[in-house]
Amino acid sequence: MIEALNTAAPWVLAALAVGYLLGSIPFGLIFTQMAGLGDIRDIGSGNIGATNALRTGNKWVAGATFLCDAGKGAAAVLLARQFAPEAIAPALSLFAGAGAVVGHLFPIWLKFKGGKGFSTFIGINLALYWPVVLLFGATWLLIAVIFRYSSLATLVAVALTPAYLFLLGQNSILPLSIFLAILIFVAHRGNIGRLLSGTESRIGSKKS
Predict the structure, then answer these.
(1) Residues 74-103: pLDDT tens digits?
(2) How many CB atoms lie within 10 A of CB 57?
(3) pTM, full prediction
(4) Which of 13, 90, 120, 144 could connect to 73 by a Cys-Cys bridge, CB 3.0–4.6 Å?
(5) In whole angstroms, how large is the CA radius of gyration of the chain?
(6) Is the separation of the CB atoms in 40 and 52 below 8 Å?
(7) Can you give the pLDDT at residue 2?
(8) Which has the closest alpha carbon to 110: 207, 7, 26, 167?
(9) Chain centroid to CA 84
(10) C-alpha dihedral over 136, 200, 50, 189, to 10 degrees?
(11) Gap between the Cα atoms of 199 and 114, Å rounded
(12) What is the C-alpha to C-alpha distance for residues 180 and 158, in angstroms, rounded to an integer?
């Protein structure tokens, strides 16, 4: 048992490290600067994610940010699955996914002030078990259409993802999904406060 743990430990640390480094790539900042739109941290909410990138008025930048933020989550999972020893690859892919979200939320390059994890969470689930992303997306759209709050749609979809995985029999992914849901809720604490106070911006409204 101890020997197995000693053998797996370096792989776990490597999966976390690679996941973190991939997750910490600030695509929102990179693409807004490449497009000549300035520093995304000085725009809207100051967040580096796709939602705030959309506030630049450039849909291509927002779309590229979403795809790449999702892609880095998927890449972390797939790399761990591809290069880790077969016996521990499934477990290591979960650690890599966790590292990617932590890296996105707390990138070392930006003084640990990153995004909120929405896109990266989708990418991780896409790589781990893509059918759950269909349920996630349907939930997000339903809540967004009814209530017109992007943050509320994200929180509800993220909160229900562990339940969807359980119903679909993907119990091995549940611990990661619950952990990531908690991280994303913490990252959205400001949005939660504004939702409760009725001051959160609705989809389609201009942020003051």
Answers:
(1) 999 999 999 988 889 999 999 999 999 999
(2) 10
(3) 0.92
(4) 120
(5) 17
(6) yes
(7) 44
(8) 26
(9) 23
(10) -70
(11) 23
(12) 9
Where does residue 42 rank: exposed (0-12), middle (13-18), buried (19+ CB within 10 A)? exposed
SS3 85: coil
For the segment 54-78, the average pLDDT, to the nearest whole number, is 95
What does the alpha-carbon distance between residue 118 and residue 51 come to, in Å, rounded to a whole number?
9
What helix, strand, coil percent values describe the chain, rounded to 5? 75, 0, 25
Cα dihedral: 161, 140, 136, 26 (round 10): -90
Is 89 in contact with 76 (CB distance < 8 Å)?
no
Q: Is 204 left (phi over 0), alpha (psi -120 to 50) or beta?
A: left
- In the chain, the amino acid numbered 192 is I
**pLDDT value of residue 6:** 61
How far apart, in whole angstroms, are the C-alpha atoms of residue 85 and residue 75? Answer: 17
CA–CA separation, 69 and 84 (whole Å) = 23
pLDDT digits (tens, 9 = 90+) for 151-202: 999 999 999 999 999 999 999 999 999 999 999 999 999 999 999 999 998 8
The pair of structure tokens assigned to 10 is 């370096």
Note whether 80 and 15 are within 8 A (CB).
yes
Question: 145: which 2 tokens?
Answer: 């259409």
Going through the chain in order, the beta strands assigned E by DSSP cover none
